[in-house]
Amino acid sequence: xxxxxxxxxxxxxxxxxxxxxxxxxxxxxxxxxxxxxxxxxxxxxxxxxxxxxxxxxxxxxxxxxxxxxxxxxxxxxxxxxxxxxxxxxxxxxxxxxxxxxxxxxxxxxxxxxxxxxxxxxxxxxxxxxxxxxxxxxxxxxxxxxxxxxxxxxxxxxxxxxxxxxxxxxxxxxxxxxxxxxxxxxxxxxxxxxxxxxxxxxxx
Length: 203
Known about the structure:
alpha+beta
């Protein structure tokens, strides 16, 4: 896997002085055998809408299925605003064989003082069960430890969605417990499985 990360952005050092903005504003491209992870672009709207409007894709996540392309454009604009402000953000996941955006993956939050973060992802139903989420998450985790210098990365999933947990497990994450009624989502309280991986787990 190749990661494009400018030498001048030594985020391991930047964590101590808190300009994490430098990493997220210049969010590096991450490449795997089948995927390219890059910043979202407004021209991605039709691809993103194709999966974000699917109720099955949105079923276990905290966002609602997009009702119109306007919703999708608003989401992409908000993500690009995150880049500009240097806040934790997501990549567009591009399938290299057809140059189509098939999902997103990225940071929900980052704690420089604890060198920890949470990641999350969503993928088009058309591309489920092909190992692509595992491929993307593996690239993000590698960047998190090698480029960001993090110590711990977390991920969570609705307990009714065990497929998401299998992705985390395949990437070396460990389930640390179940948080009962952790989140109120789409009209009900749901149990959440918490997973994490430490730098020492991959050394």
